Amino acid sequence: MVKNPKGKNEADNRIYNELLILSHIMSTLNPTSTWKLRVKELVLDFLNQKEQSELGFPLNWESEKIWLS
Prior knowledge:
The chain has about 70 residues and is mainly α. It has helices spanning about 15-30, 35-45, 50-55, 65-69. The chain starts with 15 loop residues before the first helix and ends with a helix.
C-alpha cells in the first residue's frame, strides 16, 4: 500500500463523507428523523457548486437515494 506523504488522505479534509455516515446512522436510529433533509437544505441554500465540490460533495449528490427519503 502506498502511503500519502502528508500522512492524511485528501478525503480527510472533506465533510461530505462524514455527513453521509451521519445520515445513515440517523436514519437507522430514527427512521422519522428529518436531520438529513435539513442538512440537504442547508447545503443547497448556503453553498454554491464550487464550495460543495471543495467539501467533497459529488456532482448531483442531492439526487442520490440516501438524500431523497
